[in-house]
Every structure is written in C-alpha cells, then in structure tokens.
UniProtKB/TrEMBL annotation:
Source species, domain of life: Bacteria
Organism: Salinivibrio costicola subsp. alcaliphilus
Protein's UniProt name: EAL domain-containing protein
Domain EAL positions: 24-280
Amino acid sequence: HAKKSGRNTYAFYNDALTVEANHKLRLAVELRQCVQNEELELYYQPQVDLVTGDIIGVEALLRWHHPERGLLSPFHFIDVAEERSIIHDITQWVVETGCQQLKVWQDTGLNVSMAVNISPRNLADVAFTQVVFEALDRTGADPRFLELEITENTLIENQANALKVLEQLRDKGVGIAIDDFGTGYSSMAYLKRYPISKLKIDRHFIKDIQSQSPDEQEVAIVSAMIAMADSLGMGVVAEGIETLHQQAILHELGCTFGQGFLYRRPIPAVEMSELLGLDPEGECGA
Ligand code: C2E
Ligand code: MG
Ligand code: MG
Ligand code: MG
C-alpha cells in the first residue's frame, strides 16, 4: 500500500513539474512575439516633491496585453523573459518607448524626468550602452532627464561590465537610481564605487512606519537611509507611500521625493499627460 501511494505522490509531483514547465515554455513562446505584435504598453506612475506636491518625474512600468489573459504586470512574466534573453528585446522597447514619451513631454516644455527599469541581464550585455544611446539619438530626448533603475543585486552579479556601462551612461548625463534600496544582499561598498544619483527606499521600509504609533526602530532605519543619501550627494525617493501618515513622517525625516498609491497608481500615457496638465489630444506629438 505504502509503495503505491509513494508512486502516486511521485507521479503527482512529476505532473506538477511538467505543468509548470509547459506553462513557462508557452509563456516564453508568447513573449518572443509580444514586441512585434505590439502587445506591450508603458504605464506611468508619478514621483512627487514631498514639500510642494509637484510631479518631478515619472516611472515607466511595463504592462503586457496578453491575447487571452488580459493585462499582465511584470510580476507574471519578467522572470521568464530574463531566463531566456527575451529581456533584451523587451528592455530595448521599454527604453525606446520611454524616451519617445519623454521627448513628447519635453517638447511641450515640461520638466519631468523619466525612470525606466533595467534587468540584471541588461548590464551584463556589453552592447547595452549602445541600446540606450541609440534610443536617445533616435528620439531626441534629453539624456539628463532619463534615469535607469537597477537593483543592488544587479551590481553584484555584473561587477566586470556594470562599472563601465554605468560610467558611460553617467558621462552622457543619464541618472542611475538604486531600486528597492535596502532589500539586496550586497555590502554598501558599491555606493561609492558606482556613479549612483538616487536611492529609492523599498516600500517594505515605508510600510513599516505606517502604524499610528510608529516603531522607533523602523523610523530610525528610514531616517538613516535618507541621511546617507544626503551625505553622499544622492537624491532619495520613498517608494510605496499609501497614507498621509507615512507622507507626514517622511516629510519630517527630510525625504525629498515620494512615489506611491497615495498620489496615483500607474496609469497609461494619455492619462499621465492629462495629469501633467497637457491636452490629451496632443499626447502623440507631431
Ligand atoms: P518597481 O520598479 O519597484 O516598481 C514599483 C512597483 O510597485 C510597481 O509594480 C508599482 O505599481 C508598485 N507600487 C507603486 N506604488 C505602490 C504602493 O503605494 N503600494 C504598493 N503595494 N505597490 C506600489 P509593477 O508595475 O507591478 O511592477 C513590478 C516590478 O516589475 C517593478 O518593481 C520592477 O522591478 C519590474 N518592472 C516593471 N517594469 C519593468 C520594465 O520595464 N522592465 C523590467 N526589467 N522590469 C520592470
Ligand atoms: Mg522601479
Ligand atoms: Mg522599487
Ligand atoms: Mg519593487
């Protein structure tokens, strides 16, 4: 009897693995087509000045209009894309589309920056600098308003190539932000080694300061991150602000910028143009 149930368990486990593998394989096949099928879209979430409330920039967040499953967040597909180098095509599309939109906004006289997310695999690619430079050249966007978001782990994984790539981008005026700051596994030595212009404090730290009587230690950690960014001459953004209470604490701690559902969820380009005070009809440029 035991033998039988053991075999069944094995068979079940095996089936589950097959289902998972098939799902990934199918996703990969579909993902390979998503750029040319024009199924990708960038949503934009504002970054605001915590003192004036002004929108100082936006972060571009990728969405995939899957033919059957509807609108997907990167959570559902970015890992599969990263495993199979499909990420190179996707990132190229993201950078190019982000720069195009930035150019449209710059042409109307807006001073907003455009942040795009970059995968670890991109920084391992020696041609990556070229991808960004070409997008800037083709669109005519001002590089000083473009910012690339990378995670701490990206830097540990690609020490050889990352420094060169990031320095070339910095020399062109492109900003480098550390995304999800505080959640990686690296020592902080990289902060002085790489040309980093901004730290984005991960939303889990911001979540921790939300209670009515905030835990002093949680506040102390966020406060120390802000102080460190300041003394290193970097900008600092608090991610995932959802409540006025969080905003008030962050403001008191001297945090300059914030991003989160309190201000706006990620929205399509047309809506972001409206939010920025532009005539939505003019969104596509000339
Ligand atoms: P991220 O770069 O840290 O982006 C912030 C994520 O937090 C976004 O999720 C955003 O919708 C969400 N968020 C913003 N404000 C709040 C808030 O107040 N509360 C909560 N709970 N969440 C908030 P999204 O759009 O699903 O993106 C998830 C992640 O996918 C991003 O995290 C980023 O790592 C990755 N990603 C997004 N777009 C791209 C892309 O174009 N390329 C690559 N390689 N990765 C991307
Ligand atoms: Mg990001
Ligand atoms: Mg983040
Ligand atoms: Mg994140």
